[in-house]
Amino acid sequence: MKDTDIKRLLYTNLLCIFSIFLSIFIPPFFLDNFSVLETHLIWLCTCSTFVTAVNLLLYLVVKPNVSSKRSSLSHKVTRVLKCWIYFLMSCFFLHVIFVLYGAPLIELVLETFLFAVILSTFTTVPCLCLLGPNLKAWLRVFSRNGVTSIWENSLQITTISSFVGAWLGAFPIPLDWERPWQVWPISCTLGATFGYVAGLVISPLWIYWNRKQLTYKTN
Amino acid sequence: MQKVSVLLFLTWVCFLFYAGIALFTTGFLLTRLELTNQSSCQEPPGPGSLPQGSHGKSGACWMPSQFSRVVLVLIDALRFDFAQPQHSHVPGEPPVSLPFLGKLGSLQRILESQPHHARLYRSLVDPPTTTMQRLKALTTGSLPTFIDAGSNFASHAIVEDNLIKQLTSAGKRIVFMGDDTWKELFPGAFSQAFFFSSFNVRDLHTVDNGILEHLYPTMDNGEWDVLIAHFLGVDHCGHKHGPHHPEMAKKLSQMDQVIQGLVDRLENDTLLVVAGDHGMTMNGDHGGDSELEVSAALFLYSPTAFPGAPPEEPEVIPQVSLVPTLALLLGLPIPFGNIGEVMAGLFSGGSDSEPYSSALAQASALHINAQQVSRFLHTYSAATQDLQVKELRRLQNLFSKASAGYQQALQNPQGTEETLRTVVAELQQFLRGARAICIESWARFSLVRMAGGAALLAAACFLCLFASQWAVSPGFFFRPLLLIPVAWGLTWAILYAGLSATTGSKLDSVILGAVAATGSLLPFLWKIWAGWGSRRPLATLLPIPGPVLLFLLIRLATFFSDSFVVAEARSTPFLLGSLILFLVAQLHWEGQLLPPKLLTVSRLSSSAPTCPPRHSGAYALRLGIGLLLCTRLAGLFHRCPEETPACHSSPWLSPLASMVGGQAKNLWYGTCVGSLVALLGAVRLWLHHYSNLKSPEPPVLFVRWGLPLMVLGTAAYWALASGADEAPPRLQALVAGASVVLPRAVAGLAASGLILLLWRPVTVLVKAGAGASRTRTILTPFSGPPMSQADLDYVVPQIYRHMQEEFQGRLERIKSQGPVTVAAYQLGSVYSATMVTALILLAFPLLLLHVERISLVFLLLFLQSFLLLHLLAAGIPVTIPGPFTVPWQAVSAWALLATQTFYSTGHQPVFPAIHWHAAFVGFPEGHGSSTWVPAVLVGANTFASHLLFAVGCPLLLLWPFLCESQGRRKRRQLPGGEAETRVRPEEEEEEEPLMEMRLRDAPHHFNAALLQLGLKYLFVLGVQILACALAASILRRHLMVWKVFAPKFIFEAIGFIVSSVGLLLGIALVMRVDGALSSWFRKLVLPQQR
Ligand SMILES: [Zn+2]
Ligand SMILES: [Zn+2]
């Protein structure tokens, strides 16, 4: 792998981070009283939209996995549809997991679901962009020695750090500090966002430091 | 013999933990016996005449009253310096300006303008400086500790004699307003009361404004004799902002206005008392024994002058002195258990202010006080041996001398003031001595004992960690492990006993145990120290893998936060779920879930484990999701701690009898019985799956017939209990009789089942006829009777194989069904079948102690542990010749599951949440004088989950072998299975799973694995109790220490003891099966030789 690849990865990741900042600073121009904590649900929607858009844009521009075979229009349409279904499935799956973890079943359904959406945005959307709707490829990337490129390596790191961030975000909830961000699911969404950003920052650096050890088998 | 030494070693480790817990507890939990005796007007505290005029006036008891009414203003956390007058500062020194200084200006004004009408004292408070304990002290005059033995844990109502009780029995009308703690302490004692919630310490104004709304109107309408107002604003301001905050100045100024207002309204016969219940630290907290916490202000004001000259500086008095003083000033008997000393300076001899008569009044007040204290000491030391005998005797002598002096002074009316002065000094000396010995035994944290206990616990945990490593290392011997430490421990114990015998001090069993434990730990610590430097990488020092260590650390850290302890019912399932998903993810990461063709072969580099997956990929995920689902469902049976008012306890924790509406009740009843049947069915199905239901042995017969009978009995009992009120009157006697008999019958059935199980644990079907003739042909290669264990080890697998063949052949003869034979043999599951049977037999009586709907939780409990065992087994590779190990994540998950079940069976680690009704299951009329039966019943209810999981702990070791039968079938096509044991390479192609018989193949490893399992489980539990102990001692000043941390420690400690006993029982059961199996084999082999 070349250093230019790592640089490209760094720039794309910085762009992703930038999209999160945009989602915080652009809406106030259009909406009164917008703030991340008070109008949290709106921010979740905008953040999810922005990150998805940037990911799609990057996918179209950078094309990290160049598939050689030309495909027909119908093939493309089914592919896009499949991606949609996968995304929705992952949202519902995460929602179920949250409820199993102890999130309220009936109250705050919308909040829980939007948390699932934002976490899917941080995890499933990059997977879909990079690997396509191919569950086997996903499973391969998330196993030991399964990655084949720095893009996949970065994907692995950001996904895991998003999940870990969301998990850590649950810890302040029982504390009696009575802060507005301790309300479900705000601390978790913030944790997931911080985790995602941290993953984006760390992954190019980590790849850079370990570039000697990393040898990808290409197929 | 190795088995016995494994058990003995584990017992010894448990003893180390117990010694640590006992040492810590005696230093931390101060205890005292509550006496319920009452003082009464008619009964003077001692011989001798009462002071003159006592019986003449109305409303006077032991002494004539000086005030008929009193206004008691309690300002919570009013530290002494808050009320201290600010003298104009010395020139040259900078003026001190702090928000809390000099804000109570009215006190200063009164003290300066009316020095004969007011007194300010610095009252010294006894720890624990928490409000409830202080209120108890301020009314009983005693030294309340955390555990006042004999008190009713279910409510806080004071059972000892107290001022409020004396006031009500004297017919005084008490009006109360303020902190609702008083409602719990004195239910129904007030003629009028305005309670406000003290829960929210961040709310500064609700309580105070509520009081102010009622205070002056009540004062003016005059329908009271005693008015008590308990303000909380200052205390809450301390907790929220600390004393160094402008808000504190505002709050104190408000209190100043209150005092001024009261003083203006006071009438001549009324005494005003302004008191702080305790102080606060620099941060505004309280609960401990630092100087700022124990100094509170006490201010007295009366429109009629006090006798004597006012002191220059505020006197220092113990806080409890207020109790006898108020009692005598109001003409009441002093509460029976009071140990305070009357404030003699406030007593005058009536209207004439002649020095002699006021000195006489003071002496008689002190004498009555001393008589009462002496009576109390006498009664108390007769009831318990807390107090030091020698010191007590010295005090008695002092008292009789002073008493004689006092009588003499009375006889001789011409006596001078001087003789009275000496009498007063002697009486005061006696009262102070009495207080001192009470404080010595009731009110001091012993930091040395706390630190020693924590150190012992830590050392024991350390030992578990290292010994669990050594147990599986090669060249490990059991005997020196046990003999050396026991010898050391005995030596030290004898040394200590001898030392205390020669010095003549009392032998303290707690110290003795601690000394023995420390002594026996020394060789271990020495061994670790010696091996520390040499060639030991960190990996062997910390054998716990990183992620599991992280989980453990998070769990331990939660014990140090009161919020997390309160929220543990939610945080434990969260951690458990995380651990489960982590295990699934780890399995996937290691490539053990997916068949390798999915992960392209080139991806798997050489470093990857070559062990192919034993299960399909979705298998572990399904198990994980199922576990999460069960955990979540069990969480529905959640009881709220009282600290969170927003939370609602599950309605399903109430008994069915409390339900109204027949339809719903019947539906629930059906569900509960259904879950019982499901539990029974599941266990029988499982046993059937491993063919354990075939033999005609008595335990199997019991499982077939006794268990359904138990279900029937339980269902019938529930039907009676839930519908007892609806029974027709002529059946009432029958119902009452049945509700006594049925639970006892179920418990008796369970006990007899357990005894049967212990008597004949091997439930293997032996076919005598054809089997015997064939066995001989197989066994020909082996000649001579088995002389040693090794021979037996050689023979046993052969017999086993032969029996399998035989069984298989028979099956094939009947029907040519090949694959059935794999599981169709019960020898492979002989250990776990016994364990599961024992667990279900234990579960039924425990279930009976809970309310009906908890049966669903018990069903979930078995399901959860079944799923968890399968998930863990999927991750544990079976190393065939040994050593066998149970990984840390398995043990941690098991302990977490036990904690989670504790909460989902409707428990909380606080005393009001204990299910007292369990004491009446099978004993509806109560227990009479016996106390241990209800204690055992309530304990079994509370710690049911600890017991079940601890007994079931060996399943963690057995289950991977059990799951082998499924894994091996799939692997049959794969080349190159594990090398079979040395004796039978030619039989390799047969590939029948030996399952748990592999454990018998390597008895040394089996014992080592059991020892290691026990040590690991003890370690995981031990670090929990260590964390609780550390949290309780480090946070002993915390606001919540007596509400959260101390109860948590007690529950955790008892839970540890129950768990360790259960663990020993479980391991002993496995060993019993093993022993029975050996003799069974021997019986089978010996006939072959003839
Ligand atoms: Zn208080
Ligand atoms: Zn307080």
TrEMBL record, chain A:
> Any stretches that span the bilayer, and where are they?
9-29, 41-62, 83-106, 112-132, 153-171, 183-209
Keywords tagged on the record: Endoplasmic reticulum, GPI-anchor biosynthesis, Membrane, Transmembrane, Transmembrane helix
Domain of life of the organism encoding this protein: Eukaryota
Q: Which InterPro entries match?
A: GPI_biosynthesis_protein_Pig-F
Q: In which pathway does it act?
A: Glycolipid biosynthesis; glycosylphosphatidylinositol-anchor biosynthesis
Return the GO cellular component terms, semicolon-separated.
endoplasmic reticulum membrane
Please report the record's description of how this protein sits within the membrane: Multi-pass membrane protein
Query: Taking the first listed entry, what is the main subcellular location of this protein, grouped into a coarse class?
Result: endoplasmic reticulum
Please give a single GO biological process term from the UniProt record. Answer: GPI anchor biosynthetic process
Tell me if Cell cycle is a UniProt keyword of this record: no
- Location(s) in or outside the cell: Endoplasmic reticulum membrane
Q: What is this protein called?
A: Phosphatidylinositol glycan anchor biosynthesis, class F
Q: Which organism is it from?
A: Nannospalax galili (Northern Israeli blind subterranean mole rat)
From TrEMBL, chain B:
GO cellular component terms, A-Z: endoplasmic reticulum membrane
Q: In which pathway does it act?
A: Glycolipid biosynthesis; glycosylphosphatidylinositol-anchor biosynthesis
UniProt cross-references to InterPro entries, sorted A to Z: Alkaline_phosphatase_core_sf (IPR017850), Phosphodiest/P_Trfase (IPR002591), PIG-O_N (IPR037675), PIGO/GPI13 (IPR039524)
Query: What is the protein's membrane topology class?
Result: Multi-pass membrane protein
**Keywords from the UniProt entry:** Endoplasmic reticulum, Glycoprotein, GPI-anchor biosynthesis, Membrane, Transferase, Transmembrane, Transmembrane helix
For this entry, list what GO says about its biological process. GPI anchor biosynthetic process
Cite a single Pfam family from the UniProt record. Answer: Phosphodiest
Q: Where is this region: Disordered?
A: 973-992
Q: Where in the cell is it found?
A: Endoplasmic reticulum membrane
Give this protein's Gene Ontology molecular function annotations.
Answer: mannose-ethanolamine phosphotransferase activity
Membrane spanning stretches: 6-30, 451-471, 477-498, 510-529, 541-560, 572-589, 667-687, 702-721, 733-759, 830-849, 856-880, 943-962, 1017-1037, 1049-1073
Q: Which family does it belong to?
A: Belongs to the PIGG/PIGN/PIGO family. PIGO subfamily.
Recorded protein name is: GPI ethanolamine phosphate transferase 3, catalytic subunit
Q: What broad taxonomic lineage does this protein's source fall under?
A: Eukaryota, Metazoa, Chordata, Craniata, Vertebrata
Name of the gene encoding the protein in the UniProt record: Pigo
